[in-house]
Specification:
Shape: globular
CATH topology: Glutaredoxin
Bound molecules: FE2/S2 (inorganic) cluster
Strand order of the largest sheet: 1-3-2-4-5
Amino acid sequence: MSRGLAIACEIYYNIIDIKITKAVTNVEIQVCIGSGCHLKGAHYVIKRLKELVADNGTAKPVRLTASFCQESCTEGVVVRINGVVVKNVSIGNIDTIFREAVARR
Ligand code: FES
């Protein structure tokens, strides 16, 4: 991602490179903010993830970042957790997905 694009994303979504602790990251969550996923509510997923990460406290370090199109627009919102693609993420299932991801690490 170019620096300009990263700054634009940071301003709009305010999520780039959020780190709860300075320890080694155990869980890396990357939310697609391409137009398809944006239209399907990526911003709501991000908002909820930010709350979940904050609530996670010191349990396990989580890094939340954004990505552009993951080429699965019809199955958005697309989230990549430690490199594994999770499709059809929504505000209705993000809590479960997050807790399972953190529990696995
Ligand atoms: S916009 Fe998210 S997969 Fe294409």
